What does this fold into?
Amino acid sequence: MTYNFVRRIAVVAALTLCLVAAARADIIEQILVKVNGEIFTKTDLEARQVAALRQPGQQLDLKSDPSDAQLRKMLDEATPGLMVNVIDEMLIVQRGKELGYKLADDQFQTILENIKKENKLETDERLQEALKQENLTLADLRRNLEQQMIVSRVQQNEVFGKIAVSEEEARRYYDSHLNEFTTTPEVTLREILVAVPSDGDTLNVGLDEAAREKADSIRQRAMAGDSFEKLAADLSDAPSRANAGLIGPISLNDVSPDLRKIISAMEVGEVSEAVRTPRGYQILKLESSTSAETMPFEKAREQISERVFTDKRKEEFQKYLEKLRSQAIIEWKNQDVRKAYEKGLEQAKAAEATSK
It folds into this structure.
C-alpha cells in the first residue's frame, strides 16, 4: 500500500475551492438521501464529486469559478454514475456489517505498519503528519479501509465464491468461440521488386514493359540457381533489399486477397511469377509457412473457465446489487439527486446491453 493509495481514499478537503462559494459553518447539513436509515449528505456528495473530477483524464482547476460551464458539465456527467456507486456501496457495506464483517485491530495495525514502511514514515508522528496533509484523521483512514475490506468480502463470499463453470458451459463457450483458440496462418517471404518509374497519371507502356522484362530476367536467374537473397540485395527496389528481401513472418489475413491466393498455392522454397502490383513487378519466394491450428478443448479449459467466470461474475454481481436495491428502503430528500441516480441506472443498463 503506497502513499498514493492514502491519497485516493482521502476525503477531499478542498471542496470550498470549487463547489462552495461561502463558509458553511452556520448552515445545517442537508440530507440528500437515506438508505435503510443511513444518511448521505450534500457534503458527502461534494466530496465524491471533487474526488471524481480529480481522477486521471479529468481536467479540474480548483481555482476556477464554480459556476464555470465546463465544470458544471463535468459534474452533470459524473454525478449519475457516482450516485449509483454511492448507493450500491452503502448497501454492500450495510450487508457486510449484518454479516459481522469488520476490520480487526490487529489487521489495521498491520496495514499501518505497511504504510509506514513503504513510505519511509519511521514514527507514528510522521504518519499523523502525512495524514494531516491529506486532511485525514486516523479514524477516517480506518473507516475507509474497513469499507473497502467489507465490500471485498461481501463480493467474494456472497457472489464470487458461489460461481462455478460447468463442463457444459465451458464446452459451449469453446464451440462458439473457436476463432479465439485458433492461430492464424503465417508466412515468411522474400521479395524482389522491380519498380515501374512514374510518368504522371498516365501509364507509360514502354517503361512498364521494360520493368516486366527485367523482372522476368531476374526470376529466370533465381530459377536457374542464383541466390534469391543476393538477387534481392543487389537488384530489388523495395526497402526490404536491406534485409535480402525478407518479409515476415506475417499473417495471411494481413495480405491482400490477390497475393493471398498466390501465396496459398505455393510450396516452401517456390518462387512465384512476376506479379504486377501498384509498386511495380514483384517476385516472391516462400521461405516458410504455418497452418492454422486450433487449441484442443482440454488445453483451452483453463482459459475458458477464466473468461466464462469473468462474464458470470459481472452478471451475478449485477443481480446481487439489484436484489439489495429491491430490498432497500431508499428515502430521497432531493429530487435532482434522485433523477441523477435514476439516470445513472439507465446508463448502466444501456452499457451492459451494449457489451453483450
In short: The longest helix spans residues 297-327. Strands lie at 31-35, 38-41, 186-195, 246-251, 275-277, 280-290, 330-332. DSSP finds 13 helices and seven strands in the chain.
